[in-house]
Amino acid sequence: MVPDSPTPAAGAPDGELRGTGRTRLGVELTRCVGRRREVAEARRLLGSGRLVTLAGPGGVGKTRLAALVAQEAAPDHRDGVLLVELAELRDGASQADLVAQLLGLRAQSGRSATGRVLDHLRERAVLLVLDNCEHLVDDCATFVHRVLTACPRVAVLATSRQSLGVPGEQVLRVPPLSVPGPGDTPPLELLARYDGVRLFVDRATAVHPGFRITEGNRADVARLCGRLDGLPLAIELAAARIQGLSPRQISERLGNSLALLTNGSRTAPERQQTLRTTVDWSHGLCSEVERLVWARLSVFAGSFDLAAAEHVCAGSGVDAAAVCGVVDALVDKSVLQRVEVDDGDARYRMLQALREYGHERLERSGALGGVLRGHRDWFDRLTHLADARWAGPEQSRWARRLRWEQANLRAALGWSVAEPGQAGVALRMAARVDEHWTLLGLDAEAQRWLDRALAAAPADHPDRPFALATAALHALWCCDLEAASASLTEAERLAAAIGDDLLTAQITSVRVLEVMLRRDPRAADLAEECVPVLRAHGDLRRELRTLALHGIIAAYNGDLGTGREKLRRVIALGEAGGGSHYRDMALFGLALIEVKFGDVGAAAAAARTALASSTLDSPFGDAFHLETLAWAACKRDQHERAATLFGAAATAWELLASPIAHLVARPHREFTEITRQALGDRRFDSAHSRGRALPPERARRHALDDTPAPGPERNPLSKREREVAGLVARGLSNRDIAARLLISPRTAETHVQHILVKLDFTKRSQIAVWVTLRQDETAETTGGDAPPAA
């Protein structure tokens, strides 16, 4: 970029190569990790417009991303790139003076700094990078609007915690880095897929060169990066602690990350030397009502919707009608992040560091207890509505809703159990919608919540017998028949004293499953006894569940016709509006009795129907339906297919975090043994492993088709791209690849970019893992060594 004078003004940046139209941005002293997609998207936006704002919370890496984008975009701007760092500027009116100084423009009598900047840039093709605009957002917006209006070849790349609000602005929300989800512990070789983990390792080895991720610490590293929400600043500050603490010790001390994550780089801006100062900076940008809402929203765990926010935040200085606008403002200021969900409704979440900060403020104000009670009351009401509407056409919507609210349900239950006098609310909340917990494979957790609430609630609480029966149901799904029987006996004793026939029938409906699993002949009589009572009281949920069990019992007692009739009645009622869960349960029952006593083709058709049309997306249904399809394949002598389906079902059972259900344990052993004997150990184990490796959606697709067991997926890469991928897997840089293949480094880079796009990857390490996995699969299917990657 060429200034008006060949002599730079005092204070002009050394990043300018005067007179060349080229730019040298500041040299980064640490390696950049990830952000390939964001860089590509920012460049695309710059190509279609002239103002792009990188918006996100403090510490998410907006400045580093802007530098990467500017480096790559520099060739597109003939007259160079100018970086303007605004963080230390306190007076927005001085912004134009700073830009003029950086351009080397001399003061002129009667000409404002803005006028001189506009005159200088009017005919130039420049990328203007304005870093940290949020505290001067109004002045920045005015300045940027004037520049874009007067200088048609200038583009602006801004970083800010909130958007500028200038016409034509394109906002790119900068997300945290990818990290493993709660409870996820990926295999060692796959941890490198997560940019947050890669950043932690990079920064940790900088301060402790001997640090490595091992089998012994991989779970701790995954947990640590996940708890930091992938926030780069938080990860870097945590990694700096690796000199004196192990990943586990750091993770255990993250109860207050604001206190732990201090002592960052001395060369970093003061606002980024600790996590607290970064959050303080964001807090200072908010109005008083925005600060109040921030603090109150900190009681939410996971995400929340606007209705919940309005209920929890309204009152004591916050008008309910204003909450929507305040939430929008907090999204704009990057305090909240909008979460896209599949039903079109907006949800919001707050990063852990911001949540802790708000929680501190709320506690200090003395309002924490009241806000937590409001939060609990909202989710008490939500579970009541879900319970009332579960057996009906809205079942799938409520299943999704409760899945999104799982973290909040835990928080509300935890507060109710711990707060004196509130355990009764926890009893009814945990006992409602038992199917929600089962569909997510969380029966053991539901049982623990019920046990805690039962221990804390008064002995004569009216909800105790129903809660005991629900705890027994979860125990049955966890294969703990003794605990279930004990809970049911106590529930029956209490219900007898109350004399409520509906309550007695509800408890009996659970007893039906318990005695059925014990092969007790009383099961059919108990079902006959309670179904009419449930029907008379309009308890469709338990009527359908018990009717489906009665159908299975009848078939096992030798009456296949009655079994089919009862199960088909449940299917019809479910399809007529009773809910997908009960229809799917009955289809499983029909598949079970057909494969055991009837038509194997009908069994496979029933299981396929359930898999193809279920709207609940649950490992619970997947496990049962994949299991019965494996049995059907075995009976048809399709043993390779059966072994693959057994493997896919095994993954679904593991996702349920419980042993294989009692209901299918015996036929599972029988059919598995037949399949293993037919194939031999080696072929069975190979097919079983392929099935276990299938992601849930691909497992469903395979189960719905009669094609042979899946082998390695077709290679989507060209021959040259396969060569490049093989060299990437060996650790070669683009320059090394170019030298090896006698191509230019730019061509090598293009090949790598094409590979990343075709494989839907974001980093080179994923290419290496992909190459390795394909070599392993090829060796397995050919019975020999894999061919070279190229």
TrEMBL record:
The lineage of its organism: Bacteria, Bacillati, Actinomycetota, Actinomycetes, Pseudonocardiales. It comes from Actinokineospora spheciospongiae. InterPro entries: AAA+_ATPase, AAA_22, HTH_77, P-loop_NTPase, Sig_transdc_resp-reg_C-effctor, Tscrpt_reg_LuxR_C, WH-like_DNA-bd_sf. Gene3D superfamilies: P-loop containing nucleotide triphosphate hydrolases, Winged helix-like DNA-binding domain superfamily/Winged helix DNA-binding domain. Residues 710-775 form the HTH luxR-type domain. Keywords: DNA-binding. GO terms for biological process: regulation of DNA-templated transcription. Transmembrane segments: none annotated. Residues 1-21, 682-721 are annotated as: Disordered. One of its GO terms (molecular function) is DNA binding. SUPFAM superfamilies: C-terminal effector domain of the bipartite response regulators, P-loop containing nucleoside triphosphate hydrolases. Residues 695-705 have a biased composition (Basic and acidic residues). This is DNA-binding response regulator, LuxR family. Pfam families: AAA_22, GerE, HTH_77.
